[in-house]
Amino acid sequence: MTAVLERNQPLPPAISRLAEVAHNLAWSWNRDAARLFEEIDPVLWAQVRHDPVRLLRDVEASRLSARAADPDFLSRYGRVVDDLEALGSDEGTWFATHHAGAASGPVAYFCAEFAVHDSIPIYSGGLGILAGDHVKSASDLGIPLVGVGLLYSRGYFDQRFDDEGWQLHHDEVFDPELLPLTRLHPADGSGLASVEVEGRTVELGAWEMRVGRSRLVLLDSDLPQNDDLDRVLTGRLYEAGEELRLKQEWILGVGGVRVLAALGIRPGVWHANEGHAAFMMVERARVAIEESGRPFAEVVPEIRASTVFTTHTPVPAGHDNFSDEQIETVLGAVWEPLGLDRDAFMAVGFAHETGEGRFHMTATAIRLARGVNGVSRKHGRVTREIWAPLWRGRDAEEVPIGAVTNGVHRWTWMAPEIQELLDEELGEWWTHRVGDADVWDRVLEIDPGRVWELHRRMKRASARFLTEEARRRWKGVWGKHRHLVASGPLLDPEVLTLGFARRFATYKRAELLLRDEERLLDLITDARRPVQLIFAGKAHPADDDGKRVLQRVYRLSHDPRSEGRVAFVQDYEMHVARALFAGVDVWLNVPRVPKEASGTSGMKAALNLVPQLGTLDGWWAEGYDGENGWAIPAPPDPQDPDESDWEQLFRLLEEDVVPRWHDRDADGVPQAWVRTMKRALWVAGRDYTTDRMLRDYAETLYVPAWRGRSEPDDPPDA
Predict the structure, then answer these.
(1) Cβ 133 vs Cβ 85: under 8 Å
(2) Following DSSP, what letter does each residue of 644-661 receive, concatenated?
(3) DSSP E strands: which ranges in 3-128?
(4) Any residues with CB less than 8 A from the CB of 82 and at least 6 apart, and which?
(5) pLDDT tens column, 21-51
(6) Residues 211-265 pLDDT 10s
(7) Which residues pair with 533 in a beta bridge?
(8) Could you give phi then psi for residue 121, rounded to 5 degrees?
(9) Structural domains in the chain?
(10) How far apart are CA 505 and CA 498, in angstroms?
C-alpha cells in the first residue's frame, strides 16, 4: 500500500514510514504509536480529532524535522515500525497456535456500522463499537477477517440542542482522502460492482481501512456516474425512512458480496452481524444457483453451512422488516433469479410477529444461517423464546440458537494509566498472558492506596477534559450560559460521581433517577455527602420519545436547584466515552429487563476500575458476582418494573454506595470501595473482553463452519 500525504512531502527519511503507521488503525491501540503522533504537535493532534493522516498532512515541516533529529523519538519510532512489520504475519498468534490450517478463507464480517476510531465517524453507538472491537481482536488473535460495511460520508450526526433542550442534528461531511482509508476503486469513479435499485444501476466503489491484520472494506455509492439520488444512498447512517433503509441494506448485503468477489476475496465463513446484512445470504444463494443450475432448496444447505448470524436486540423496533410492495418497488422481482415466485420469496422472510406480507430481515437470517447466537446468556434464552415459532412444535429450550457474550477490546478501552499500573504490578509480560486467570488474580493484590490515588488522578483529568470541552463549545458553536453550565465545568472531582452514557432509547431508562426529582435533588445536594451525575448519549433522529427523555435530563443539567452537580456531555463519541469511563466512580446501567441484549459500557468502565450498578439484564445477569458492583433485584411485578427498580436504585445508593464511598481509613483510603473496584477489573479483564469473545466465536462457530459442519442440520421449518 502506498500512503500519500499531499501537503508535506516527503517525510524526513528518518521517519518516512510514519505514513504507513498512520494508515493502519493498529496505531490507535498501540500506546507508543499514539504518543508519537501526539508529540509531533499536541495542539494540532487534538484539532484533527486524533487523525494521524491529517496531522502529517497539516503539521509544520519544522516539527517533523525536529522529531527526526530526536534520538529518543527515533528509538520509539523504530519500535512502532517493528510492531507494524509484525502485523504482516500471524506467527505466534492465538489462532495460528490453536487452529493452524483451519481457515479455508477469511471470515467476511458484515455489519451496518463500524466504530474503529473517533476520526472516522461512521458509527452511532453500541453495534458499531462492538463491530470495531470485533475487528481489532480478530487482528490481535490472528483470525483472518475482512469486515464489510458502508462509507457514510455524512456520518451519523453531531449533537446540538436548542434553548429548550431539544436535540438537533448537524451533519459533518468528511473527505475520505483525509482519513486513514485507501481507495480500492479507480480514481476516475469507475465502480467495482453494481446493484439494481428502483430499476437503476447503482455503481459501487469501495475504500479499505487497515485495522491491524484485519481489513475493512467500506462500500461507497458516491460515484459521478450514478444518479444524484443514488450517490447519497451511502451518505448517512441509519437514515429515517423504510425505503432508504431497504436500499442501504440491499447495497450492504448484495453489493458487499459482489465487491468482495471483484476484489478476489473468497471468504470461508460469512458472518452477518445483525439482520441488516441478511441480503448477503440471499445474494450468495443467487450466485450458487447461477453457477450450478440447482434450485434454491438445494443450495440453501450450502449457504447455511458457512454462515453465522448474530442478533443483538430483543426489542421489536430493532428488527427491520419491509412490505412486499416495498421489496418489489425498490428491488424489483428479486425472486426470479432465485427460481422462486413472490410468495415463496416472502416466506423466506416470514415472521410470526409481523405476519404475511412483510419480509423480516432477522427471520431471513435465522433461516439462512447455520450458526445463530444471541450476545449474552440471558439474551440467548430470550432469543430462543422469541424465535421458537420458526420451529413448529418445539419448546424454546430446544431451539438451536446459542449465545456468545459480548466483550470489549481491552487495549482500546482501558486507560493508558491503568495499563501502566498493570505493567508495573503484573510484570511486563502480562499483556501476552491476558487469557490466563492467574494473571488477573494478581490484580486483587495491588495496594489499595495506589489504586485509589490513581483513580483520583484520573477523575481530575476527566474533569479537566470536560472543562476543555465546555470551553471549546463556548468559543465555537455555543455562546449561551445554559449550554456552558450543562457541559460540566462546575463538577468537583472530589465528589462521588455517577456516570450514565448510552443511546437514549426509552427502555434504557436514563430518566429512572429523575422519577422523583425532589429525592434526587436531596441526594445530590447533600451538604456532607453530595453526589454528582454525568450523562451523555444521543437519541435516534426519529425517536421523539427518546428525545423527550434526553430533554428532561438536559434541562436538569442547568437547573439551579441541582447546584451544578448534573452535567450532560454533548456529542457522545469514543474519546468522550474513554474520559467518562475513567473519570466516574460508579457506572449506571438500568435497562428495563429483558430489553438489554448485552450492553458493553459497564465492561469498559470496569476495565477502568469503575464498578457498575445495574439491573440484572444482558451481561450483568452473568457478570455480577456480588462483589464487583451492585445489582437491582428483579421486581415483584415484571410487567410494571419502573416503580420497584427506582426504589431499589435509591435504596442501594443511599444505604450502600454513598456510605461505602465515604468510609475511609486513617490514610483517607476507602478500603471496601477499592476492593469493589479491583473486583470489577478482575471480572471484566478475565471474562468480558473481545479476545475471549473472538475465541468463543472461532471455536464454536467459525472453525465448524470452515470444516463444513458434518453434524446433522437443524433448520427452521419451511
Answers:
(1) no
(2) HHHHHHHHHIIIIIHHHH
(3) 107-110
(4) none
(5) 999 999 999 999 999 999 999 999 988 888 9
(6) 999 999 999 999 999 999 999 999 888 766 889 999 999 999 999 999 999 999 9
(7) 498, 566
(8) -85, 65
(9) 13-86 (no CATH), 94-406+697-706 (3.40.50.2000), 448-677 (3.40.50.2000)
(10) 19
